[in-house]
C-alpha cells in the first residue's frame, strides 16, 4: 500500500499527517504499529508523532495522534496547529475557526491568514485546565497538587500537576540548562504516582511575562516543544504567582504566546505551524 503524507512541524515538534477519512489505512495496518514504523528516524519518515485526519459526525473533523512509541495521546498542542493549517490550506475545512474532536474533548483552533490566504499563525482555544489529582490522574492525599513534593531517585522535586486533556508535571528550577532532562524526565514520567504516566516540564521563570521551559513528553522523550505542556506551565506558574495570566513561553523550538482567560477559564495558545515536505511512502 502506498500512502500520501505531509511532514509538518510546530516549533520543531514534528509530525506525519495522514488522511484516513475513508478508513483504508486502518484496514491495512493498525495505527500503533504504523506510527512506530513511520516515526522511526532511521527506518521511516521520522517524527515525534503521527496525526490522523478522520471524519466526525458531530464536529467539523476528528484529530487522533499516536506517539513515536505507538502509544496514543489525548491531545497535542503543537500537533493541532499543524493539523489546522493543513486542513485550511488543503481546503478540507473552509472556515478559519473549526471544531475538532480530540480524545481530550472539543478543541477549537483558528487559523490567522495573510492577504494571500496562507496561514501565518494558529490560535487554539485549549479549553479549561484540570487541577483535581483524581482527574489527572496523580496519586495524592491532597485534592490538588500545587508544588507537592515528589521523590525522584535521590532528589526531591516540587511539582504542580495539571491536565490539558493529558497529564503534566511542572517543576520550577533555577536554570533549565543544568537539568538532566533525559534522566529526570523519564523518572518522573514513569513515577508510580502517575498511573497513566505523565508529560514533564522543567520551567525557569525569566520575569512576570516570560519563562523558559524544556520538555520530556510521555511516549516521545525529549522534544523541542510541547503546546499542552506550555499551557500547563502557564497555569502552574500563574497559580504560584510566578507569572501573569498572559506570558510567552520560550521553548527550544521557538516561542508560544499564552493567555489564561479567567472569565471563561480557557487557555489560549498562539504559535506557528510549518509544512516541511509532502511525499509518498510504501508500507
Structural features, described:
- This protein has 283 residues and is α+β, with helices and mostly antiparallel strands.
- It has 2 domains: 2-127 and 271-282, Diaminopimelate Epimerase, Chain A, domain 1 (Roll); 133-260, Diaminopimelate Epimerase, Chain A, domain 1.
- The protein is 17% helix and 42% strand.
- It contains 5 helices and 18 strands.
- Strand 9 and strand 10 (155-163) form a beta hairpin.
- The longest helix has 13 residues, at 77-89.
- It is globular and about 50 Å long.
- The chain starts with a strand and ends with a strand.
List keywords for this structure.
single chain, 283 residues, alpha+beta, Diaminopimelate Epimerase, Chain A, domain 1, 2 domains, 18-stranded mixed beta sheet, 5 helices, globular
How does the overall form come out from the CA principal axes? globular
CATH topology of the largest domain: Diaminopimelate Epimerase, Chain A, domain 1
Low-confidence stretches: none
Number of strands: 18
Mean pLDDT equals: 97
Report strand %.
Answer: 35-45%
Radius of gyration over alpha carbons? Answer: 18 Å
CATH architecture label of the largest domain: Roll
CATH superfamily label of the largest domain: Diaminopimelate Epimerase, Chain A, domain 1
Q: What's the CATH class of the largest domain, please?
A: Alpha Beta
The portion of residues assigned to helices is 10-25%
What structural class do you assign from the helix and strand content? alpha+beta
- Count, helices: 5
